[in-house]
Design goal:
The complex is a heterodimer of chains A (365) and B (399). Chain A has 365 residues and is α+β, with helices and mostly antiparallel strands. Chain A contains 14 helices and eight strands. With 399 residues, chain B is mostly helical. In chain B, 68% of the residues lie in helices and 0% in strands. The chains are: A alpha+beta (365), B mainly alpha (399).
């Protein structure tokens, strides 16, 4: 049979963002795949070197569109670690809540994308509609719906609005009840199962070697979560479980995410229940004259797609020397995709892509 | 028709046979242009409006509701918009084939309307090979889609076209086999005869002749979905895989033709299912035999057809699409053997019950009870789930 070359992207409805996958196809079977990036490179890491520490926040949150808070939090914690700035207790709780809210809305987007890639277009309509309620809470809290610029070195910008707690708990009840609908429509859908089970398998013994992280790694049965392994913010004071499912296919990843969705709801409930009173930020010096001692650091956290790390080096001036973002999508989108796509079928490419949480803006910064 | 043609030929004073043929051809064309297409367009258009409204309901949104009452005239607005658009054609496209492809698809769907009986008298042409005609004429759709995929000079289009051809050719076999059982029961290929062999009450329909006809009904229904490229078998235009499949390069009115054909196909699926299995236009005996009963019979036909169309639309918004290999496995591993087996069983039952009308009636009532039970179950579950729906939100923030 003749081998055909197909270029999936840079503009293609099956890909979220702009990247290109070069496929060698024989009939319906993929022989070789190669990821080409470079369509979304905005040079953020270099841009940050020319700005003061505070000025970089609007850049940082644009690294990943569905989950800006992860980047803000990482960046703020890196700056705090370098400068030795303390964060008040209440700010840490609020930050954790924002991270979990970000995880929830990211998973809602993922649910829509995953079923949309299989042709089930009711699911995106539902989940993106429900995500709007979460964005309403974000708007109330931070003033922004998508990009929040909420986390600050030394704390957070604003305190919780009056009545936020009841509205948040109402929303959590609503999302929990909606999960039953999602389960019926997507997770227990016979055709979804048929397409998801046994597709895009990552072998358990190769997962760590290939650099897999996050829900994808937990879907292969390896328990790895930064929230538990190296707790940051206040995750050591919360009770939650980290699920693992054997199998390594799309369905086990979906189940991991579904379980974590419910865990995030429970975490937010705990936070709303136990959050202490107190100040929400420590004042920082004049940001234009704020010099941070020489040194370097690496901070990381567990985003909805996996371990998200920031390396930051400072040379003692008002501007940072170098920052390097290590996102999960880089590994998943480039090297992992090239390893698991050969042998699978043409129809599964965008399904696998969605289940790995590949996000081109994060890959290229 | 014939009288019109003859009078025209006489009044124009045409004597040669070629001339007479030409005139009759012209009359046919004029007839199809004036009557058939305005007859076909509303069906496809209204089905498209229906589909979008139902989809809106299912997806917690509104759907088209601006143009006309409840957005009823949306399909006209869409058609006008499509006509106003620039007609783009790729430079490297095979231009004649590219232009002709939508007409093949449109023709394949539109021509089926000729043989569909809407009531006892409302049928354009009661062909004696009616059902056979419909099977053959729908093959034009395959040709058109294959042409569209090939002539676009685009790899995604080509894959879509070839997928569509393989899918339709494969599923034509279970469809034809399930139609064959109906023909066995009727003893005729004519659509009217098929309807007349049934009755008004559910146990008189072909679906409840014996339990194997229920199996055949499902095989026919699912195969018809696959032949019409409806979800869960909409692989030829799988968006996340093939951009838009065979119609990727089409725009403007040509694109609208494809979509009109798709929704027309939905209507044809409903009509075929109704005629073959669900009793067609059959009204109670008192309301038959007169041309004045046409509205009643037409309404009965349209009600049954709308029910089938509604199920097809509902399936589209609740199911993902299957993969290509799974599609072929469903056809060749399950449907073809099962339908062969069912034909055998139906034939044996026909031979056994021949002349025993009480036995036939008993079996009919028994199998009607089976499928009515399933229908009841579905309705019951739908109502129950509707009552305890979770889509309620009462946030204090909104007050």
């Amino acid at each position: 049979m003749k081998t055909t070359k197909l270029y999936l992207g840079p503009q293609h409805p099956g890909i979220t963002g702009n990247m290109m996958i070069e496929l060698d196809v024989e009939g319906n079977k993929i022989l070789k795949s190669k990821t080409h990036v470079g369509y979304l490179h905005r040079g953020f890491e270099k841009l940050m070197e020319r700005r003061t520490y505070i000025q970089s926040f609007p850049i940082v949150c644009r690294i990943c569109v569905p989950e800006p808070d992860v980047n803000e939090n990482n960046y703020a914690r890196a700056v705090e670690k370098l400068s030795g700035l303390e964060v008040p207790e209440r700010a840490k709780w609020i930050r954790t809540m924002v991270l979990e809210m970000a995880r929830l809305q990211s998973y809602l987007l993922w649910m829509g994308g995953q079923s949309g890639s299989m042709g089930l277009y009711t699911m995106p309509q539902w989940t993106i509609g429900d995500r709007d309620y979460l964005l309403d809470r974000f708007e109330e809290l931070t003033g922004g719906r998508v990009y929040h610029l909420y986390v600050w070195p030394g704390g957070v910008r604003k305190d919780l609005p009056i009545g936020f707690k009841t509205r948040m708990l109402d929303l959590m009840d609503y999302l929990e009840s909606r999960m039953k609908d999602y389960t019926k429509l997507m997770f227990e859908n016979a055709i979804f199962k048929k397409r998801a089970i046994g597709t895009g398998v990552i072998p358990k013994d190769k997962a760590l070697e290939w650099g897999v992280v996050g829900p994808v790694l937990r879907g292969t049965g390896i328990k790895h979560d930064v929230r538990i392994d190296e707790p940051y913010e206040i995750y050591d004071k919360l009770e939650f479980e980290v699920p693992t499912y054997e199998g390594g296919d799309i369905y086990s990843r979906a189940l991991v995410r579904k379980f974590e969705f419910m865990q995030s709801i429970s975490i937010i409930r705990q936070i709303m229940d136990k959050i202490p009173e107190g100040p929400i930020y420590n004042r920082i010096p004049n940001p234009f004259k704020w010099k941070i001692p020489k040194g370097y650091t690496y901070v990381k956290l567990e985003s909805s797609r996996g371990e998200f790390g920031y390396f930051m080096a400072s040379d003692g001036s008002e501007k940072l020397r170098r920052v390097n973002v290590r996102g999960p999508a880089y590994v998943h989108g480039i090297s992992l995709l090239e390893k698991i796509l050969p042998g699978s079928r043409l129809g599964d490419v965008s399904t696998i892509l969605n289940s790995l949480g590949v996000c081109p803006p994060e890959m290229e910064r | 028709m014939e009288s019109i043609t003859n009078s025209l030929i006489q009044s124009w004073g045409i004597t040669s046979s070629t001339g007479a043929q030409l005139v009759s051809l012209l009359v046919m064309l004029a007839f199809s242009a004036v009557v058939l297409i305005p007859f076909f367009l509303p069906f496809a258009g209204i089905t498209s409006w229906l589909e979008r409204r139902i989809a809106g309901r299912m997806q917690s949104r509104v759907g088209p509701n601006i143009n006309g009452p409840q957005g009823f005239l949306q399909w006209i607005a869409d058609g006008v918009k499509a006509m106003e658009k620039e007609d783009l054609m790729p430079d490297d496209a095979d231009k004649p084939l590219f232009k002709v492809a939508p007409y093949f698809v449109f023709m394949g769907v539109g021509a089926t309307l000729v043989a569909i009986p809407f009531s006892e008298y409302l049928v354009l042409s009661d062909l004696n090979v009616g059902i056979f005609y419909i099977i053959s004429v729908t093959s034009f759709v395959t040709v058109g889609i294959l042409l569209a995929g090939w002539s676009s000079n685009n790899k995604w289009s080509l894959i879509g076209g070839v997928r569509s051809a393989s899918q339709m050719i494969s599923y034509e076999i279970p469809t034809a086999l399930s139609i064959l059982t109906v023909v066995l029961l009727t003893g005729s290929l004519s659509m009217q005869d098929i309807v007349k062999a049934q009755g008004f009450w559910p146990w008189q329909w072909h679906i409840s002749n014996n339990p194997f006809m229920i199996v055949m009904f499902f095989i026919f229904f699912i195969s018809a979905l696959a032949e019409g490229s409806r979800t869960p078998f909409d692989l030829p235009e799988a968006e996340s895989e093939l951009v838009s499949g065979y119609n990727t390069e089409y725009s403007g009115i040509r694109f609208a033709m494809f979509f009109l054909a798709e929704w027309g196909n939905l209507f044809v699926i409903g009509a075929m299912t109704t005629v073959l299995f669900l009793g067609g236009w059959q009204a109670p005996v008192a309301l038959q035999g007169s041309i004045w009963n046409t509205p009643v019979q037409f309404i009965i036909f349209m009600t049954k057809m709308s029910a089938v169309v509604f199920i097809v639309i509902q399936l589209r918004w609740t199911l993902p699409r299957v993969r290509v290999d799974q599609l072929m496995i469903i056809c060749w591993h399950y449907f073809v053997p099962l339908s062969l087996l069912s034909i055998l069983a139906v034939t044996i039952w026909m031979a056994l019950s021949y002349g025993h009308s009480a036995l036939e009636l008993g079996m009919s009532i028994f199998s009607a009870a089976i499928w009515l039970y399933f229908v009841f179950l579905v309705l019951f579950r739908a109502v129950r789930n509707f009552k305890k729906t979770n889509a309620k939100l009462n946030l204090n923030f909104l007050e």
